[in-house]
Design brief:
The complex is a heterodimer of chains A (480) and B (337).
Chain A lengths: L2 H44 L2 H35 L1 H35 L6 H30 L4 E4 L2 E4 L2 H6 L1 H31 L4 H36 L1 H8 L5 E3 L6 E8 L4 E8 L2 H7 L4 E3 L2 H16 L9 H28 L6 H6 L1 H10 L2 H15 L4 E3 L3 E2 H4 L6 H32 L2 H4 L11 H5 L1
Antiparallel strand pairs in A: 1-2, 3-6, 4-5, 7-8
Helix pairs in contact in A: 1-2, 1-4, 1-6, 1-14, 1-16, 2-3, 2-16, 3-4, 4-6, 6-7, 6-13, 6-14, 7-8, 7-11, 8-11, 11-13, 11-14
Chain B lengths: L2 H33 L4 H11 L3 H18 L1 H10 L1 H23 L3 H31 L13 H4 L2 H25 L3 H31 L2 H4 L1 H23 L3 H23 L2 E3 L8 E2 H4 L3 H28 L13
Antiparallel strand pairs in B: 1-2
Helix pairs in contact in B: 1-2, 1-3, 1-6, 1-8, 1-12, 3-4, 3-14, 5-6, 6-8, 8-9, 8-12, 9-11, 11-12
The chains are: A mainly alpha (480), B mainly alpha (337).
Chain lengths: 480, 337
Amino acid sequence: MDVALSVISLARFQFGMTTVFHFLFIPLSIGLGLIVGVMETMYVVKKNELYKHMAQFWGKIFLLSFAVGVVTGIIQEFQFGMNWSEYSRFVGDIFGAPLAIEALVAFFLESTFIGLWMFGWDRFKPGLHVAFIWITTLGSSLSALWILAANSFMQNPVGFLLKNGRAQLVDFPALLKNHQLWLEFPHVMFGSFLTAGFVVAGMSGFALMKKKNVKFFRKSMQIGLIIGLVATFGMLATGDRHSLALETDQPMKFAATEGLMEDSGGKNKSQAWALAGQYDEKNHTSVWEVDVPYVLSLLAHHKLTGFNKGENTVNKELHAKYDKKFGKDMNYYVPTNALFLSFHVMAMAAGVFGMVAVVGLWFSRKKYTDEWLVKQKWLLWVLGVVTFLPFIANTAGWLITELGRYPWVVYGYLTIADAVSPNVSAGSMLFSNILFFVSFATLGAVMVYLSARVLREGPDDLMIDETPVTDPFAEEAFKK
Amino acid sequence: MTTLQILWFVLIGVLFAGFFFLEGFDFGVGMALKTLTKNKAERDALVASIGPHWDGNEVWLITAGGALFASMPNWYASLFSGFYIPLFLVLLALIFRGVSFEFRAMMKFEKNQGIWEWATAIGSFVAPFMLGMIFTAMVKGMPMDAQYNVRGHFFDFVNIFTLVGGVAVVLMSYIHGLNFIRIKTIGDIRQRAADWAQKLYLVLFAGEVVFAVLVYIYTDFFTKKPILTMLILALIVLSSVVSYLATLKDKEVVSFVTSGLNLVGVVALLFVGVFPRTMVANDAAHSLLIQNASSSPYTLNLMTWITVFALPVVLAYQIWSFYVFRERLTVGKKSGH
């Protein structure tokens, strides 16, 4: 293999690996911040200790995910300079600003206030203590906003001029007004709420099978499902807007997610939607497809007719547009099968989330008793399995976003090949890749192990009444 | 070179100095976790002493990295790609150290807690050691090409100067951590921290002499800026002498502040010595200058305004958080989390 090529592949692999791993924990911790905030607020308002125990119990999972999210985040910031130094030189003027602002206004906030929240239960009045979790969640959300502002620039570069071969920032507000940002940010936020909602509901499902602390986990499950259901609607709405914009912003990405090799539809023609399919990425043809009539027009145009370009048409257009700049040999095709599959996994997951939330909420209504609910093994199992689905859907979402901008790092301006560090050896990158992989596998395993143990032990240790019973003959003394 | 460019060079120095002052002591406490304690209760007390703070302290490094990227992208690119493996080891150390506190707290058995205590201790050692090596190698001069790419070999990174630099930062952090332990604990462990610190100061004095000699041999600091270099070196020695005397007299806050200033002094020495360059190349023509390294005036201006408004707020709530958790920890008493 060509050495230059392998450095690029290794750098790409590392970016993909670190981003995906980081993004397993970030949505969980942002979302759990919200859920724990909701629970603690209910405690402050209703003064019911149950909600305090819920906030503390789910807070343990929140702190675990926060810790892993933080440490994997540092890699993101460093690897641009380490693996992509040419990229850093090209866009530092623009891309660095949101990263620095993120650290300054968001990351300091969340990391300081999470310390106050974690260690401050006994020091502050409930009304003030609950503010710390909200400030932490606000900080994480601001983090997401700035990071996505940086990512949006790569997807849809705005607010700059090319000067001496470098991108130079001329309009900072444009970075924040970038329409790509307002497609990504709400989608990611709803995705975070959804993730945490179904994780809380699903873990509660597992716990309910044990028939212990039923009241506690039933209430947790309801809160998780309500937040999950609202977030699912948010996901559908923001995802739909995102897709519509892709048709014009990045038509190649759109065509691949729908498996369109050739143009589809026309002025008064309907478009069939590929429910499943496989594509020949060498000859750019479809191998097989299961088509459903009309559905693509409905999805992509909200009508029964419509037109979309296929990959082959887009490829010709991109060559016409960019050959002068990047040469005739540039490959503009994206990995179709990966994008198609990722998109379909994501879309179908959304359907599953919606159904599970509705069914789960239906059967946890007041009408059904605790005894009845814990006997509904099928329901608890479905919820339990769904715990893992958000992580798959989130990963699929990032794969679409990032693989779909091939061959560019900065869409239309800087190719991946021109962005990589010229002075880092393949050996160094292989070394870091292997060690990162092993480390992530270790962290992931410990995280799952600890979460499972927290769940197995349940909230009992939080519920021990700390005030000692002074009268040995009091009624409470016998209950212990 | 414009005023804005100089301002940002100084600000990056300030951010790194802030990082070493703050995270320096929690690195030190992390190392002490496996070298100073005798039982689990003492280890619990040490972890609790930095528990609420280490995360906020580390953000100083993240902010320094982000500010470097935003204000001097060429420096960021040259430094981070040029010191790939040492920086990778810093990252690895910070990853395992970062999760270790949370994982330790959740482990049930002492044996499993021990694994994560080692992660804290080793991570707390490797990160400052590697950062010390990186900074000394950076000022020593590296083989760089005309595009400012560092193309160094093993002995450019690892040599007597960089090794001493690494050890120096570790030692200063360790002493700084011991001083923090003296502020935050009472009883046996506090006395042991004081005894250790008193011995280590003597090593540090010897180390400072060696370091000064190596700076003379390996860098152009003495030839280019003799007065400033000697002045800062004198201040470093002075702060460590004061710190030592304060330890003898049991003035813990004075010794903590001055051991922190020690680290700040080293950062100041390196930044002053390098100026007006950012990366020193063996071939002087290839050195990366502040004026070539920095962002456009527009970006620098923007970043300045944001910093002017945000930094005081950050400082205010970080100081408040230290104030909230100000009381001493009693060994053996369960605290908070």
